[in-house]
Amino acid sequence: MEKEIVKYPRIHGVSYTQDEIPESFHQHWHNAAEFHLILKGGGIYKIDGKTFKSDAGDILLIWPRELHEIVRCPKESSVFIQFSSYLIESNSDIAAASHFLSECHLLKKSETPELNKKISDLIYKIRDTHDQNKYFAETRCKLLIYEILLSIGDMILKERRESFRDSGYSDKFLDYIRFACSYITEHSSENITQSEVAEKTGLSQFYFSKLFNEYTKMSFPAFLSGIRVQNAINLLENKNLSVTDCAFESGFQSTTTFNKIFHERTGCTPREYRKLHSLSHRQE
User: Fold this and answer.
1) For the chain, what is the radius of gyration of the CA atoms?
2) Which of 44, 50, 53, 243 is most deeply buried (CB count within 10 A of its CB)?
3) Which pTM value belongs to this model?
């Protein structure tokens, strides 16, 4: 079991893989989400201890920070996209619904043929956009990923709305978390605290913490750190700002904490990221 650092060599926050998928791979996890389009059956995967067997046309969904393993993947039997957890965390609607989204790991073509066809087409559009590397390619890829997430979310919320209410979940709870996610994102560069956000949401700190963890599958500090790292990544692209400036402007209170969390999230230091970013632009 180990943490894998996902690299995005061509488009920041999005990658497409077809030719480098191993036939088996040990247990690991990463901050990125990973969606597989299964091209032919026979694959076996494990996600958080549960085993999933895939058939052609299925869509396998691995969400950020889930422990997973490729037990068996026949050669040329799948393609997949990986994308930054920031796409989920920075959107209050999707972040608030991630409790429900992360319960869905395998979309069977035999059960949801129209949805699977739509997602398959979108994954191939991401591939084409990713490979062509045209202007606004990053934005186009991320819009396509949001379309995938919305399609999955609409299906889950439509099918399970009644069961959500029966189990104690409600639209009101989603509204609490949606507001909290939006507030955190908008004020991430400030020295905000969990108690402050709980108060703004109208909940006790204890209940807010419980609800936030349950719905977003993340603690408040981890969610806030993820937003701040992405803010820092955007700032690091401005060569007129020092690394220290980027740290404080993105909301970190010390450069030590900034360097530590940035490395945990991206696999490199802020200085290394800036250097790699500059090299990739020169190569283009």
Assistant:
1) 19
2) 243
3) 0.84
